Amino acid sequence: MKRIVRHHLDFAISYNKADEKHTLLAGGYRYLDHVTDAYIEAYGESMEEAFSFAAKGTINVMFELNDIQAKSKFEFEVEGHDYSELLFNWLDRIILLIAIDNKVASNFNLKISKLGSKYQMTGYAMTESVDISKHGYKTEIKGITYHEMEILQESGLNKVRFILDL
Question: For residue 65, what are the domain limits?
């Protein structure tokens, strides 16, 4: 059983006393136990929402997500042969946005399409330039890994789990 280390506040939980079940009502992310790296579960009603929260969870490992303001629009396109490769390429692009473009994102508008044998995700992120004095700096992300990556559909939610190498 995995213990939840930290919750994101963008989700609500309802309690159904009749069957003693907790149900996630909206998208969000949480950090799961891992010895040396960041293990993140992100979820949403759509795969786009789950991918959006995966990016937010990734960014929040490095910076204070709540301190990021939407100042400029960054458009992107990523592809993958399946959802796992699409997630990997998406999070890699988010990490490169920070490392190379010196931009940090807070809000996302995503659209995933199936094009023949591959998936394509297009959209935009609202960004601002990285400012350590404003955004803080928690830890460096070396990269995303495929190790223990999962793409799930459970109880009407789309979930992604992945590990960031720190």
Answer: 4-165
Domain count within the chain: 1
pLDDT, tens only, 54-96: 999 999 999 988 889 989 999 999 999 999 999 999 999 999 9
Block residue for tokens 């297009």: 122
Question: DSSP readout, the chain?
Answer: -PPEEEE-SS--EEEETTTTEEEE-S-EEEEEP-SSSEEEEEEESSHHHHHHHHHHHHHHHHS-GGG----EEEEEEEEESSHHHHHHHHHHHHHHHHHTT-EEEEEEEEEEEEETTEEEEEEEEEEEE--HHHH-------EEEEEEEEEEEETTEEEEEEEEE-
